[in-house]
Write a structure and sequence with these properties.
Length: 174
């Protein structure tokens, strides 16, 4: 969101209430790595170059620590976890929610090595061409979803909880 708020100028209108997103690094369950520096010189899987928590946060921490590695983009979070569990790569970047889902779906052989601090999650945002009135109507609708059974069902269908109004300053932690 932070990048798209600059050009073309998207504006945040809502975000998930009480939620933070964290990047994680996973390794094979029996791997001896105990810290990120143990990944020096290895190939690491990432879902996509622009994935905020799974790629950008993880890569920033590796660079901050001076850890050299070769990135390999594998198109999805699930592909990261499978690549690690099957030993195709030493480690990979992901997020807690998708890793938990993968474990619930039967993924075995991987564990979390590192977790980032929490950051404000993804924004519901509107293009700058939207009128102020339309922007307000959409924000009101999104925020009110958790107030009805039907709305809760819609949110639950995409694994979201209640939404709250948002402003650009909510992403100052990024």
């Amino acid at each position: 969101y932070v990048e798209f708020s600059k050009v073309p100028g998207y504006r945040a209108i809502a975000r998930e209430q009480g939620k933070q997103i964290r990047g994680i690094v996973v390794v094979r369950e029996n791997d001896t790595a105990s810290q990120l520096s143990d990944l020096e010189g290895e190939t690491l899987a990432f879902p996509a170059p622009a994935a905020f928590a799974a790629t950008i946060l993880v890569r920033a921490e590796l660079e901050r620590l001076g850890v050299s590695y070769t990135p390999k983009y594998v198109s999805s979070h699930d592909s990261v976890y499978l690549s690690v569990a099957r030993g195709f790569v030493k480690a990979g970047g992901g997020i807690e929610r998708t890793f938990s889902s993968a474990l619930e779906s039967g993924l075995e052989g991987a564990r979390v090595l590192w977790r980032s601090p929490g950051y404000t999650p993804h924004a519901f945002a509107v293009h700058p061409d939207f009128s102020e009135g339309d922007k307000e109507k959409i924000a009101d609708l999104l925020v009110s979803l958790s107030e009805t059974e039907e709305g809760q069902g819609l949110l639950g269908g995409v694994t979201l909880k209640a939404l709250v109004r948002a402003s650009d300053s909510d992403w100052d932690d990024v």
